[in-house]
Specification:
The termini are far apart. The chain has a domain of 113 residues: Immunoglobulin-like (Sandwich), CATH 2.60.40. 15% of the residues are buried. Helices cover 16% and strands 29% of the residues. The longest helix has 28 residues. With 171 residues, it is α+β, with helices and mostly antiparallel strands. It contains one helix and nine strands, in the order H-E-E-E-E-E-E-E-E-E. The strands form three sheets. Strands 1-2-7-5 form a four-stranded antiparallel β-sheet, with no helix packed on it. A three-stranded antiparallel β-sheet has the order 6-3-9, with no helix packed on it. Strands 4-8 form a two-stranded antiparallel sheet.
Length: 171
Amino acid sequence: MKTTVRTPRSPGKGRMARTAAATVALCILGGAGSAYAYWVSTGAGSGSATNGTMQTVTVDALVPGDTLQTSLVPGGSADVILRAYNPNPHAVTIYGFASNGPVTAGTAHPGCTTTGVTFTPPPAPLASPVTIQANTSIQLTLGNAAGMSAASVSACQGATFNIPVTLEVRK
């Protein structure tokens, strides 16, 4: 005769498995419902923005404290020194320079009618960008940007030349 020994079943083992399965099913359904709600929900609203106006960056020639490092002579070239002031509440980057009119001699040399002076700005965009921080000024030196031909009259000796320059700046 054969005897079988049965091991008693632990109470609640089946109930725990059913509870776990129900929990997993609820999580899957809850996640799918949330995803469905996310993709099909709609909404409406309004927004606004304003566009500020950038103030003009000003350019001055030599100001007290700035000094020339090179002198302009007939047949030669020299540096052009500028001081640029950024009145904006944000930094700007200088993109390029351009001539903005004829070169004239300073008022102390009225006989310097034919200056022979030219301005050759560096190509834009600048190879090394120059940034002017908010509400500050910087001195800029444009190496060999001024040239003087042999056509200059003798009355131009010792003159300071006014070279109108425009800066192109970008935020």
